[in-house]
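User: Hi! I'm a student and our assignment asks us to look at how structure tokens line up with a sequence. Could you show me two examples?

Assistant: Happy to help. In each example below, the sequence comes first and the structure tokens follow. Example one:
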Amino acid sequence: MDQVPGSPQEPHNAQSGDGLPGCYRHPDRQTGIRCARCEKPICPDCMVSASVGFQCPDCVRGGSGTGHSAHAMAPRTIAGSTIAANPRLVTMILLGINVAIFAAVYFGDRLHSDLVARFDMIGLALDPALGGLVGVADGQWYRLITAVFLHQEIAHIAFNMLSLWWLGPPLEAALGRARYLTLYLLAGLGGSALSYLLAAQNQPSLGASGAIFGLLGATAVLLRRLNYDMKPVLILLGLNLVFTFLWPNIAWQAHVGGLVVGAAVAYGMVHAPRDRRTLVHIGTCVVALLAIIAVVWVRTLQLVG
């Protein structure tokens, strides 16, 4: 949100030797925290806890007496989105979709359904059950995204959905629903694309792990942007990467691809300048999508060339 004309400005002489500005109300108190709405520097005495980060007293009061419109003063997240009444809605929908598809797979296996064979992530393979060559290289690009919502084992979906429920709501609140959903889908696609590029052409994979690692990377970027303690998320990220490479039968390519894409997209979303937020956000997502398409295109040429 743009700074409201007439509100206190950041003191020009508040910079310390280490570059930290002074609180806009107490210039002698250096701080690394900024208001989540107007981005003025605020000290601990001026912080007001909000659903996302902290706000300054002026933004909490809603600009009383400034004469600005309600739209101009509408609460905004750090990424510039309006603050939703339910910051878990998209996360709940994603969780519901994953569970519903898992139920279809779980009970379908008992009915000899071929849902997994039709929708898992596979580059190119000969599948007699489906009548010949199948996979992304055979034109089935939809597998890049359908595999992100596909699980076959209870432990697999339980771990992914618990992670989604833990990581999702804070990011949804910070980024806004549309940006959060876009990040989730791009991270899932990024994981599928790297699996397609590096995994054996007849090696299938499935699961939301790429998207979950994307949320983990985005969480690290967001905490760094808010100057929060990074140790917990870095420890969690490190442990997950260790398990990724040491645990058998894990598609590490999907984890790494999702992590990279999620962190990159989140960086563009939370570091975009306020006067060009929408342009930077769209540009970041478009570049990420084009990179994914390029990886898939190059790999396809290798497999069918």
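Example two works the same way, sequence first and then tokens:
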Amino acid sequence: MTDQAVRCYRHPDRETGIRCSRCERPICPECMINASVGFHCPECVREGRRAAQAAEPRTVAGGSVAGDPRLVTKILIGLNLLVFLLARVEGRPFVTALGLFTPCYVPDSVQCGVAGGPGEWYRLVSSMFLHQEFAHIAFNMLSLWWIGGPLETLLGRARYTALYLIAGLGGSALVVLLAPETLTLGASGAIYGLFGATAVFVKRLRMDMRPVLILLGLNLLFTFTWGGISWEAHIGGLVVGVIIAVAMAYAPRSRRALVQWGTCAAMLLAVAVTVWAGVANISA
């Protein structure tokens, strides 16, 4: 046996009598990793991990399959219900503190609303979890359970959470741009994003689209015919939800994560630009 054969393949200056039990390459004590039988080299361990990851079950969109496929939906419903109860107990001041509006509507008050600066930007998110009326919270939470649960199963937790939150922000951003002085609240923008995403995945999976299109059409009809509904939040959420869902449903497998998360980042940038334009319009 030559001198080369008894030296670690990663550290040629170290002699060794141990070989990887998979590839038979000589390895020194620093390189050998305990295995069920013998020792493995770092490269064989990495290859084994990659093979194990490739064998893990994945959702349609490439996410990890979770033990409870509706966990995020349950958490979102729980948060909405908690904020609703607080709003019922605390009353109007609580709603005013969390609701979405751009400029202050109280004369001579301190700066408030989204135009008040970074300290008020939380309203873009807090308003998504705020409801006042029983009918409002009941309709939105039932919709979230019926639409969100199956969609979470298709996407996986991380992608579903991103879709929900960014769609909700899209609704808030369009309100800031087009209806800045209206106090707006509710999860409808995010839920309309889920409606749009459901339509995209029904198309992607070649299922019958008529039920979801009828449901979406009826909701849009109510949006534009019933009073007191923020169509801006609904349309903003719907558009953002559709765009993100297209990326998640049709991204090429070889670049799936890049396309999906890149699209989410692009939508966040679009939200920021829209909010900036709305605030600038008020300040002008």
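Here is something you could point out in your write-up. The two ends are 84 Å apart (CA to CA).
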